[in-house]
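forwarding from the other thread:

> can someone predict this with nicotinamide-adenine-dinucleotide?

sure thing
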Amino acid sequence: MKSIQNYIAGQFVRGKREFADVNPADGTVIAQVTEADQDQVDQAVLAARNALSGEWGRLGVRERAARLHKVAEGIEKRFDCFVQAEVADTGKPVSLAAKLDVPRSSANFRVFADMIKMAGLESFQTETPDGRSALNYAVRKPLGVVGVITPWNLPLLLLTWKVAPALACGNAVVVKPSEETPATATLLAEAMQDAGIPAGVYNVVHGFGPGSAGEFLTQHPGVDAVTFTGESRTGAAIMKAIASTVKPVSFELGGKNAAIVFADCDLEEAVSGLSEAVFLNTGQVCLCAERVYVERSIFDAFVGALKKKAETLRIGWPVKEETNLGPLISAQHRDKVLSYFRLAREEGATVITGGGVPEFGDNRDQGFYVQPTIYTGLPESARCVKEEIFGPVCHVAPFDSEDEAIAMANDTKYGLATSIWTSDLKRGHRVAQAMNVGITWVNCWFLRDLRTPFGGVGLSGIGREGGVHSLNFYSELNNICIRL
Ligand code: NAD
Ligand code: 6OD
């Protein structure tokens, strides 16, 4: 049986306890994972602290950036291993891991390596009312030891999205990947070693949240900042747990994202874009659209076309090239999604397609699949319209005016992403600016430029990462004022 270990101070280390890593496609155990105890988390934090005062702390920005480019090369060199590990852990289709997860992970290192070399900071020539003059300029310093806690849906992509800028800014990290998807974080340690990232700069502790590595890490007095991606209620628990130590936090949390489809859109483009926005990664992307608002005059045509798309998705073994819909991550998560399928019916939904579990007649029946599902007919107050489900499911509702669409889209405690589909550019700008979210796409979805701000409002998060926003989160700025 494969063993996945912690990575502390440049060494792969076992611990006293292990837990099973399960393949969501058929429920088989694929590896045993070492669970880090408090001692090992202490060792990882200490290793990171020591690394800051060692070679890593003395490296100039150019050399740091060069090593991060080598990490990117190390990911590319192990491309197939990363793809296989991500597919086995998550059940996502191999085509998706090869197109999105792994290429984006090396891109995360390349982009932030380049950005830190180019990054400038403010300076001001100062004249005070009493006639003195000074030069003010800011310098960037690492935060120190950064605790990185990540979810299971895009494991390597989301981990490197935080680790790359943290290292670019000169920090050392202790990462706690999701217990559901431990493999690629440990594999990344090999790329770190090859790239000459000194021991202790990148540490991995495996385990769970409460009473395990996640909690030990966030509450650790030696951790200077916490960056977290996951559920909003976990974010709230972490915030509470670390409040007394007053450290910077960056939270990328859940969503209940809306899409607005106007009658003047290119219908084929909108249906195809929203089929991705609803079903990509089996709906397990924080940016997925679970609420789709469609102008009434094209409502029936849109629902019919989206149903056709959903029914032509190829649900199957994740390792097969032709598969474009895999299972959900776990039995527990499938129970949650199926409980919303039941609730939708109780709340009065019309089932346009799906709403159940596919039958295969082979080992996939022990996996965690659900059907791609579309509902209509729910009131806006329904729990299925208000709560994040995080599965391949959406509710489609009609609207009669732009104002009504904006009001419905904004009627949520979340505020992560929206997509707007229209051929009227003025309307696209106007509606985009009315959205209470961190990210709005017009005539596209999940089209990323890593220099742009990324994050959410309300229950969807605190702060922004991406581009200079990442550099600013992962640095302390020291303003220096020199009397002239
Ligand atoms: P989760 O909150 O259950 O777990 C995320 C991580 O937090 C895991 O590593 C887990 O072990 C750890 N954790 C759990 N409780 C903890 C605690 N008390 N202290 C410290 N660590 C703890 O989330 P998940 O189920 O893995 O991921 C799905 C959720 O993540 C969805 O809500 C989704 O919308 C959200 N998400 C958001 C973004 C974004 O960018 N906004 C991206 C991806 C996923
Ligand atoms: O693209 C990104 O940088 C990013 N953080 C995506 C998040 C997706 C959520 O599941």
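The chain has a mean pLDDT of 97. thats all i got for now
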